[in-house]
C-alpha cells in the first residue's frame, strides 16, 4: 500500500472528518452484515478515542480542536445531551476569547498567538461556524457577531478556503449569491486536487439541495467524473483527509466508482 501523505489540514481534523464520514456513509451503503459489524467497531473505536481526548473543561485543547471534535460528536450523537452541551459551551468560551483577542491584540489578559491554527483565519472561522451550527447554535448571531457574514466578505482567499466557507454558509441556511456559485463552478471545473475539488462539489451540492437550485445539478457531472478519476489503485484518494472528503462528495452522485475500496482504505 502506498504511503499516506500528510494532510494539508491538521491531523486531528483528518481523523475527525474520517469518523464523521464513516458514520454518515457506511450505514447507508454497506449491506453485508459482516462488514457492518466491522464498520461499527471501527467507528466506535474512533469515537472512544475522541472521547478520551476530551479535557476536564469539556473541550479538546487549543485552536479549532474543540470545534472539530464537536462536529463529530454531534453528527454521531456521541455521549449524553448534557455532555455535548457542556462541550458547546466550552466552544463558545474559546471562540469569544479568540474574537476578543482578534479585536484587542494588546490585551493583557490574552496573549497574541502566532500559530495559524490559533488565529481567526477564514478556514478557522468556517470551522467554528460549522461546529456551532452542528450544536444548534446560529453562527450568524453569535453574541453580537455574524460569523457567516465575516466569511462571505473574504472573496480574495484561496480556492479551498472559499469553497469551505461557501459550504459552511450554505449549511447554515445563508443564501449563496450567484457570483459565489459562479466561482464555485469555476473551481470545480479547473481544480484537479482532491481537497479543492471535493469541497467545491460539496458546496455546490448544498446549493442544489438546500436552496433547490436545479441548474446546478447538470454542472456537477464533469467535476464528479474528474474526482472519480483521481481515485488511486489502492482505493484511496491520497491522504486520510482527502479520501474522507472524496467519499463525502461522491456519496450522493450516481456515477460509478469504487466505493467499497475507498471505505476499506479509510478503515485500514
What does this structure look like?
By secondary structure, this protein is an all-alpha fold. It has two domains: 48-100 and 120-154, no CATH class; 161-267. Residues 1-16, 22-37 and 107-117 have low confidence and may be disordered. It is built from twelve helices and no strands.
Q: How far is the N terminus from the C terminus? A: 10 Å
Query: Which structural class best describes the helix and strand composition?
Result: mainly alpha
> Could you describe the largest sheet, including whether it forms a barrel?
none
Q: Report the uncertain regions.
A: 1-16, 22-37, 107-117
Sequence of secondary-structure elements: HHHHHHHHHHHH
Number of helices: 12
Defining traits:
2 domains; disordered N terminus; mainly alpha; 268 residues
Amino acid at each position: 500500500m502506498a504511503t499516506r501523505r500528510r494532510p494539508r489540514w491538521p491531523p486531528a481534523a483528518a481523523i475527525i472528518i474520517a469518523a464523521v464520514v464513516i458514520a454518515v456513509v457506511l450505514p447507508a451503503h454497506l449491506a453485508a452484515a459482516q462488514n457492518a459489524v466491522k464498520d461499527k467497531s471501527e467507528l466506535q473505536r474512533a469515537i472512544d478515542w475522541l472521547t478520551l481526548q476530551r479535557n476536564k473543561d469539556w473541550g479538546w485543547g487549543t485552536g479549532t480542536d474543540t470545534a472539530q471534535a464537536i462536529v463529530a460528536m454531534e453528527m454521531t450523537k456521541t455521549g449524553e445531551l448534557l455532555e455535548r452541551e457542556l462541550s458547546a459551551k466550552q466552544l463558545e468560551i474559546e471562540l469569544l476569547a479568540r474574537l476578543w483577542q482578534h479585536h484587542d491584540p494588546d490585551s493583557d489578559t490574552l496573549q497574541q498567538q502566532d500559530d495559524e491554527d490559533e488565529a481567526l483565519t477564514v478556514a478557522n472561522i468556517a470551522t467554528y461556524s460549522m461546529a456551532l451550527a452542528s450544536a444548534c447554535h446560529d453562527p450568524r448571531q453569535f453574541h453580537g457577531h455574524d460569523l457567516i457574514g465575516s466569511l462571505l466578505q473574504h472573496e480574495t482567499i484561496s480556492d479551498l478556503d472559499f469553497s469551505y466557507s461557501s459550504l459552511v454558509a450554505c449549511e447554515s441556511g445563508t443564501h449563496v449569491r450567484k457570483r459565489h456559485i459562479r466561482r464555485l463552478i469555476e473551481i470545480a471545473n479547473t481544480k484537479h486536487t482532491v481537497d479543492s475539488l471535493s469541497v467545491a462539489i460539496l458546496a455546490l451540492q448544498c446549493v442544489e439541495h438546500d436552496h433547490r437550485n436545479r441548474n446546478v445539478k447538470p454542472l456537477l457531472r464533469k467535476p464528479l467524473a474528474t474526482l472519480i478519476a483521481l481515485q488511486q489503485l489502492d482505493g484511496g484518494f491520497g491522504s486520510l483527509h482527502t479520501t474522507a472528503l472524496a467519499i463525502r462528495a461522491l456519496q450522493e452522485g450516481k456515477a460509478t466508482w469504487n466505493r467499497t475500496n475507498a471505505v476499506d482504505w479509510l478503515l485500514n
